[in-house]
Amino acid sequence: MDLILDVQGLEKRFAAKPKQTVAVAGVDFSIKRGECLGLIGESGSGKSTVAYMTGGLLPPSAGKVSFYGKHRQMVFQNPVMSFSPRMRLLDSIGEGLRYKTNLSGAEIKEKALEAMDMVLLKREYGNRYSWQLSGGECQRAAIARAILIRPELLICDEVTSALDVSVQEQIIQLLIKLKKELGLAYLFISHDIALVSSICDRLAVMYQGRIVETGSTREVIANPQKDYTKLLISSALTLADAAQQ
Q1: Tens digits of per-residue pLDDT, 96-109?
Q2: Which residues form the ABC transporter domain (predicted)?
């Protein structure tokens, strides 16, 4: 299985008085085709900054992002905010094809409808606006838009954190389904141990801008090596126990 993404020495510094803020400090990781790598850590650890640099939306201060495919797409935390409130959903989903292909309007519409079918979103919703949908429906639409051009890599930045717990599971199952059907690779950004354990093949744990531990999902959760990873998993288990009581 060959690589779809290789990240080496990635750094990001933001100018701030009296000195620079280092958000990401020398991050290395790779993702194979069809693999899901979970990047986990607390808020402010640098996960989303890594996601934006990996997706080409933010230039790194140092380091290199090597992408070995044709297309990579990103799905964001707030699905409603990622759509124009003035565009109907079907037009928003198909917008990327208008810039990347020479397809006719009718062909783009049909492909957008097919993408809606793949994410189990009713075709009739194509005539609605994003603010007329629930959070889960809107996130399905965002995923449909992302897979429309058949990317090899999907970067998911906290894609379930704004959703209800029951809807979170539905979105995870959808992503697992699409991974199998389309051979997608994922960079899955999350702070939720339970979620990443159900979808990710490997985990990379971030703390203060650095990756402090990597390994298979089972290894990292069952036998964490670093104190921070142990604390992260322990906190997640404590919250899960409290929720069940």
Answers
A1: 888 877 888 899 99
A2: 5-233
Domain boundary among 125, 151, 177: 151
- Summarised one tens digit per residue, pLDDT across range 150-206 is 999 999 999 888 788 888 889 999 999 999 999 999 999 998 888 888 899 999 999
Does position 235 have pLDDT exceeding 90, yes or no?
A: no
> What's the number of domains the chain is made of?
2
Predicted TM-score (pTM) of the model is: 0.89
The closest of 77, 66, 3 to 34, measured between CA atoms, is 3
Residue 204 lies in a domain: yes
Instruction: Please count the CA atoms within 13 angstroms of the CA of 29 that sit on its side-chain side.
Output: 27
Residue 9 sits in which domain range? 3-69+152-243
Domain match, 218 and 125 both: no
Task: Take residue 206 and report the two structure tokens written for it.
Answer: 């971030």
